[in-house]
Recover the amino acids of this structure.
């Protein structure tokens, strides 16, 4: 019998410190630049202060990009522009520094960690530190079979929890979360449609490589068929992940929840991380207070999930490449908000604007 009780996360996760946020807001009101003049940067700085429990906010000095990798059996239906089983090549590009996310991370001086949960290749083909949390090789075709067994779903979820603990213990102060997968946007659409009660066509997008109309119709049909398998298990999130998710999805969900437990803020990337966050919200309703959405990828399932969690993306660049690239683009914005919040001087009493002074 499983010893994992997902309800524990509801008790373990606290919201970012509301008192500290009020102190940060009060400090912002005393600074020389009028409140509101910096737009969302004000809100970002105050959110970060509450997450850190510190006023003034500390700079983000030890961020890390964490990318969960896995192949999805649904890709065999031709729902992606990438070949089924092609995640190994994507992982290699990240590790070799030639992928978009690797280039951005290098530019921003952010270390990248890849965690293989279900890449469809021999484990000896990838470095040991990448494969040490692997649960299985690939996942089932979720339109006709489970992605994995309940035991594998639990193992993957706990692997994500372990990775979150490793990062928190290492002093990581902000996570950029992404995925490396083929077929992942189809699985994400299934989860979002199931949890939001919508039809397949509402959540099915064009994916990272902008598929053509015929491929999109196949993808819609796959999401529709998988939804029939998802709806009967909506009451049990771990069973839902086993039925129509994947080991990488289960691990990302566990990672997000444990990061909230450990009070580590996370920037979500695209539709896959948004879908996992939505599953996490079903488990612990306070958890989304620890997450930012880096950017709007244009995927309808991402928009639906973020709207359900009341999270507004920081950027709107339509980056669909995955691998945390969109979230990495938002990191300078978060760092800028922290610097402005901490370093803008407070106005002296005699600096009160003339229009605010009381005539004598």
């Amino acid at each position: 019998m499983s010893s994992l009780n997902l309800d524990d996360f509801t008790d373990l996760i606290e919201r970012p410190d509301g008192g500290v946020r009020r102190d940060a807001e009060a400090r912002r009101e005393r600074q020389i630049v009028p409140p509101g003049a910096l737009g969302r940067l004000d809100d970002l700085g105050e959110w970060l202060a509450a997450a850190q429990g510190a006023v003034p906010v500390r700079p983000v000095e030890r961020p890390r990009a964490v990318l969960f990798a896995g192949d999805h059996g649904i890709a065999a239906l031709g729902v992606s522009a990438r070949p089924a089983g092609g995640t190994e090549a994507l992982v290699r590009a990240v590790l070799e520094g030639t992928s978009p996310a690797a280039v951005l991370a290098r530019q921003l001086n952010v270390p990248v960690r890849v965690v293989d949960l279900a890449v469809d290749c021999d484990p000896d083909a990838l470095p040991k530190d990448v494969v040490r949390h692997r649960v299985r090789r690939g996942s089932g075709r979720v339109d006709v079979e489970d992605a994995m067994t309940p035991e594998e779903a639990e193992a993957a979820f706990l692997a994500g929890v372990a990775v979150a603990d490793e990062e928190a213990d290492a002093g990581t102060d902000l996570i950029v979360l992404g995925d490396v997968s083929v077929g992942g946007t189809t699985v994400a659409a299934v989860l979002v449609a199931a949890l939001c009660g919508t039809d397949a066509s509402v959540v099915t997008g064009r994916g990272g490589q902008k598929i053509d109309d015929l491929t999109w119709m196949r993808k819609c049909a796959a999401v529709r068929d998988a939804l029939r398998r998802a709806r009967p298990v909506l009451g049990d999130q771990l069973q839902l992940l086993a039925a129509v998710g994947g080991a990488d999805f289960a691990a990302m969900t566990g990672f997000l929840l444990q990061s909230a437990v450990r009070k580590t803020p996370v920037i979500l990337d695209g539709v896959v991380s948004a879908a996992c966050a939505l599953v996490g919200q079903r488990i612990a309703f306070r958890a989304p207070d620890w997450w930012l959405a880096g950017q709007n990828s244009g995927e309808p399932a991402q928009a639906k999930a973020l709207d359900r969690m009341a999270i507004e993306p920081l950027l709107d660049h339509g980056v669909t490449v995955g691998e945390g690239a969109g979230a990495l683009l938002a990191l300078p914005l978060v760092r800028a908000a922290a610097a402005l919040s901490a370093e803008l001087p407070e106005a002296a009493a005699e600096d009160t604007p003339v229009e605010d002074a009381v005539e004598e």
